[in-house]
Structure to design on (225 residues):
């Protein structure tokens, strides 16, 4: 298989993967699965899209087709954010309250980050750490805060100590996982520092903006150290 065809095939598979996750979670939500948990499963699975990088051939420009899932959803989220009905799959699996306009905030910002990571930051260790922290840390922190958070605090929005601890722990684990799978090594200094500072940023960030602030934080940490 030629490098170009190889990349086209695996980029197509990554699109199928992301759409399959949304479809599966929509099925479970219809069966009574909690919407807040389905939203975060989609969040984590979308961040895990970059694992497809290990199958791409770096010798062809078609490697940049890796952003296809994010680019498609970027357009869909804009359309759905203005026109979707309450029973739309994306509304049910990607929003907190069922308000379609939520798609134009956190989920849309997330696709923008994926596009940035898959182009300007493609095949860079920083991208693996960023998506690990954003996917797993930010994905699981709200659930721990909601279901097990007993020590609440409010800065810009209400958070919990338990949620922040979960962000730190799972952010580190996610970054370690992606760094090892994709690049074969673990930069503990960078990962721990980026996760720790991102935890603070997430704790003080306004609602729906953390999908942008966390990646910016990881990039700043990388270039500073």
């Amino acid at each position: 298989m030629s490098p170009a065809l190889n990349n086209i095939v695996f980029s197509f598979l990554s699109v199928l993967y992301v759409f399959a996750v949304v479809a599966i979670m929509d099925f479970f939500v219809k069966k009574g699965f909690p919407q807040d948990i389905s939203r975060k499963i989609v969040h984590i699975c979308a961040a895990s899209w970059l694992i497809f990088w290990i199958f791409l051939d770096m010798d062809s420009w078609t490697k940049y087709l890796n952003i296809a899932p994010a680019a498609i959803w970027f357009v869909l989220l804009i359309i759905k954010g203005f026109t979707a009905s309450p029973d739309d799959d994306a509304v049910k699996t990607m929003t907190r309250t069922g308000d379609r306009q939520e798609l134009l905030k956190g989920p849309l910002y997330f696709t923008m980050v994926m596009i940035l990571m898959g182009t300007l930051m493609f095949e860079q260790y920083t991208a693996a750490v960023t998506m690990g922290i954003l996917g797993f840390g930010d994905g699981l922190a709200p659930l721990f805060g909601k279901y097990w958070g007993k020590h609440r605090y409010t800065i810009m929005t209400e958070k919990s100590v338990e949620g922040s601890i979960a962000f730190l722990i799972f952010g580190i684990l996610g970054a370690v996982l992606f760094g090892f799978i994709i690049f074969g090594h673990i930069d503990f200094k960078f990962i721990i520092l980026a996760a720790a500072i991102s935890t603070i940023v997430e704790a003080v960030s306004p609602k729906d903006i953390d999908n942008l602030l966390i990646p910016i934080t990881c990039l700043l940490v990388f270039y500073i150290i």
Observations:
- The first helix runs from residue 3 to 30.
- The beta strands are 152-154, 158-160.
